[in-house]
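Q: My hope is that you can spare some time for a protein that puzzles me. Underneath my words sits a plain record pairing an amino acid chain with its backbone structure tokens. Those tokens are not coordinates but codes from a learned vocabulary of shapes. Thank you; the sequence and its tokens follow:
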Amino acid sequence: MLDDKAIQAAASALEEAERSRKQIRLLSETYPEITMDDAYAIQDCWIGMKLASGEKLAGWKIGLTSKAMQAAVSIDIPDSGVLLESMRFPNGAVIVPGRFIQPRIEAEIAFVMNGPLEGTATVEDVLAATDYIAPALEILDTRIARKDPQTGKLRTVYDTISDNAADGGFVLGDAVTDFSGLDMRWLGAIVSRDGEVEETGLSAGVLNNPLMSVAWLAQRLATYGHRIEAGQVILSGSFIRPIEAIPGSEIVGDFGTFGHVSCQFE
């Protein structure tokens, strides 16, 4: 277990990495004794610094829920992070150079809540507490190097959790308010970069059902003293592998009748 001084130091290093756009080495190498509780404590400390400076909480993200994403980063369990209002981009946004360090894109189903969810939440509870759903792109970014520059080791789940689950931003498509009877396992997307299809997937890849993912999040948040609240956005997890958002590229998520969502990187 890390002490409070180490947790504060790690959070401050992440904040400086984001500010300077210079990645730090793996926290799992700097602190070999780090645990999952430590990682979430670092995340909480870092987000607490942001909230204290005037940032506003927008919701939560769930990461590493699909086999595709777990394989892409060599991590085999889900994690979660925090969405801030400063991370929200409008559909079709043009993102200026230098906004992120190493942006990548994921396709997801977003849930916007009309009520809170407790740690005992079931799939039925998630449905009852959902105001609307929407197609979404998540912008990943990493303040921690994907591979340690000194040892060559890859990130562990402790690194991704500490790094706010690699969250950078999110883009929501139009709200879908009528989802009664909708089998959310069959929502899918064709994701293109500059008109060329890069990834396709079905939302069943997310713990078999995005609703299950949101229920998992409610349970995990309760473990660390948090709760999903009304008005919050929940990104339920990617069902594609991440796509590199290279400068000058446009990323489009075609969710069929469910809608389109896009962003462009200058």
Remarks:
- The mean pLDDT is 95.
